[in-house]
Amino acid sequence: MKKYNLQRLVLIPLSLTFLVLISAFVLTSYHISQRDEATFMESRYRQFRTIFSGLAARDAQAMLTAAEFIASQRRFQEALLENKLDQLQAHAHEVFLRLQRSLQISHFYFRDAEGNLILRVYRPEDKSPATMRASLQRAMETGLPAAGLELGKSGLLAQRIFYPWRIQGELVGFIELGIEIMPTLRQIKELSDIDIMIVLNKDRLDQDAWEAAHVYHTHRKDWNLLSDCVICETTLDLSKEDLGHLYTTAVVNNLEKTAGISGQIFRLGHFPLFDAGQNQIGTLLMVVDMTERSDIFKTFIFRIIGFSLLISMALFIFAFSILGRASRQLNSGAERLRQKGENLAQSNQRLQQEIVEREKAQQQLQEFSKYLEERVSERTRELANKNREIETSRKSLEAAYHELKEQQATILHQDKMACIGQLAAGIAHDINNPIGFISHNLTIFERYLQRLNQFFALQRDLVQRRGDSELIAACQKGRRDFQIDTMLTELPTMLTECRDGTSRVSQTVESLRIFSRQEVPQHKLTDLHHCIDSTLAIIRHELREKIRVVKNYGELPLRYCYAGQINQVFLNLLINAIQAIDEGGTISINTWAENEFIYIAINDNGGGIPAEKIEKIFEPFYTTKEIGVGTGLGLSIVYEIVTRHKGRIDVASKVGVGTTFTLILPFDERAKPRQPQANPLGTPINSTPEGNLF
């Protein structure tokens, strides 16, 4: 009699099903990873263009300022007009060394009004004619300063500016300054972690000039490394063969493709490079190291596969045991039935007894079959339950994956905010230095004004006592004609206004510097009112003409928290309030402490939020703003930070009336009591004629 093998009949299809599910999951995860990498590259490209444009504009402005300074110096004007080139070189070399140290300026020329070379300051022994640049032609045509990216026959790529030099209104020549592109590429790598490689077309270069330039640029690659182009500048620390492989891969495979070199994985993108005359001079290759991201994805896939195989093995062993027991019971019953048949065949002589025994055996067989049916049904239900458990586990994994994507988006947003903080700190430092000079000069000017007042008083007294009537009348007429008394009366007021203005700028710069300071997050005792005031100072320009801010500060204790994260909470809420107000409006900030909780309420009288949207506003990527205005991450980040500080945030809104966000933070047992505010509650602080209250 044939034996039944339930294990083979059930476990083989079940194993194939698990294999198909795991393969589908791995394939889907791979496609999602590729789409995320493409999005990541698009974001990095936009970041690169923004940083490169900002650095180029900064360098152009710095060179313009330097050229204006040089053109205004009388010693340079006299040396040029008298054709004393040695004296001009001596003066210019001193200035060039300072510019080279402070602004990394590498090129300094004097040209005549026709654009011909007068003096090459950085290399005076080189008397060869200077190249006619597109930016120089534009400056000669317009009579205005012109700047742009220029390429020389030797492969030198630099940002250059040509400044028309006029003496007493007559054009006497041009001042040319240049900064090589390599320092800018290094700054881009430091700011964005993006590597750049510049490849130039050979038809734009001269091979002899290129090879001669090795004396000054030893980092350049071989002329014959590539067929129709040559590698000029790069921030990558790779061999020339690897660099050639990267370029070939990018050109053949086009934008956003992958190349592997020495165990590293790079994502590539190449774009045409144009000079100031809008001529394509080569290719700019953007390279992002994706090795770490790839390793993380592989680790994730291996863990998922291992976990799935572990679960499958456990289910396989369990099903193998259950089905083996059922198979043995089924085969045992069949064997007993066979033995009964043989016994009945041997009992032909006792027919009646055999019939009775056969009926009895048939009854037993029916009972046993019913028992087998019940057992099979029971095992079938158990398998269905296991399948439901597997489906539940799959949904849990899918939810964890979506949560991971949301956290990655949050990290990207915080990385951008960190970059913006670095730029803001640099701007604050650059503004603070000239403001210091202005404040110092105002103090000296005020002292000089006092001495002038004393001198005019002494002069008037001496003229009155010792001068004749004609001299007295002439002095009085001169004072009236030149409005000396009016100037002496108005100058102290003007000095006071200037000092107030520089003080306001200094306060704004200090607030910007404190707000943008990047530190390792520290859990320290923090003044929440100071955090609000710093944030208001940062967004002062957003409030200047249309919004009035009223601060009602109560008595709050100092609290241990992460000050940078709390600043981000206030910034996101205040920016949302500003964007909710179309025309003139009011933002109210109320703080108080009650029942061992700190309350901070930020209210605006904007358009409000519909009731059906309020419950979704803290979800990642959900926004009520227009496309391009909001990312959907601001309130999600606010909710996460407040929750991390063991607090909560409530929202109340009515369409057409306004919205109120209320932060509720518990007291900290280490907190110290705070001194009450000096201004009365409900009174606007630091009112200005424009209606801005800070």
UniProtKB/TrEMBL annotation:
Residues 676-694 have a biased composition (Polar residues). InterPro entries: dCache_3 (IPR029150), HATPase_C_sf (IPR036890), HATPase_dom (IPR003594), His_kinase_dom (IPR005467), HisK_dim/P_sf (IPR036097), Sensor-like_sf (IPR029151), Sig_transdc_His_kin-like_C (IPR004358). It comes from the Bacteria. GO terms for cellular component: plasma membrane. It is an enzyme of class 2 (transferase). It is a multi-pass membrane protein. This is histidine kinase.
